[in-house]
Amino acid sequence: VLSLAPTASGYDLQIWRGNGPQLIDAATSPSDLVGSLTTPTIAPPDDAETSLAVVVARLSVAADEAVPALVEHGIAVVVVPPEDSLVRPGVDPTSRAALVASLDGTAGLERVTSNDSGTIWRVVAESGVARARVLEADGVTPSAEVVVTSRDLPTGGLASGVIRAGGEIIATDADRLVVLTERRNAGWRATLDGRVLEPAELDWRQSFTLPAGADGELAISYSDPLRTVWTIAQISVLVIAGLLALPTRRRAPGEDA
Question: In degrees rounded to 5, what are phi and psi of residue 152?
Fold first, then answer.
């Protein structure tokens, strides 16, 4: 879901993996600050953020290239919050009216409804939309050699949750790519029948190489590299707190020090 809030100073945009902002959204996003702890600076936009900014610019002028770019980011729904939104405060009425008109005129966007959440459009693309997909080696053409388990999934689409995805892969004579609509991150891992797949360099999207002749059950997961450190730190704090809470024997009057 692309939540696009027009304000007096520009567009405030968020990508939601659920019915609103999720904790995992922050976990898989780049850090906003870089540098030392005493003199941090704002990190420059990465390739994913730059690409998304171009998408929004195209939507604001009803450009024909907008929907293919939305598909690249795995966006299936676009939401413009209402003027009095408590979730996305600061919506400018004039800017909102102009954006709504542009979205209504964008080819490949179909208005669904307007309610307390805002005005909602569905992305209608010939290739369909999926957060995880198997593509041919060109990184564009969907691979038909994937067992599609749901009518909601397009050709090559993989069933996905918030941070997991997978499906059954059928072998072909050529190399293919497993592509996620998530930025590249060392925390992503893909296996095929337990065999680890090598990451591929496509663009800002996390991708893996699917060798020719490979088939079996594909599993994709995400693990924060810092999670183990935080888990150990939390356990250590709990152990220390437990030890400090244990009762100690008081010395009896007259007992030698």
Answer: -80, -10
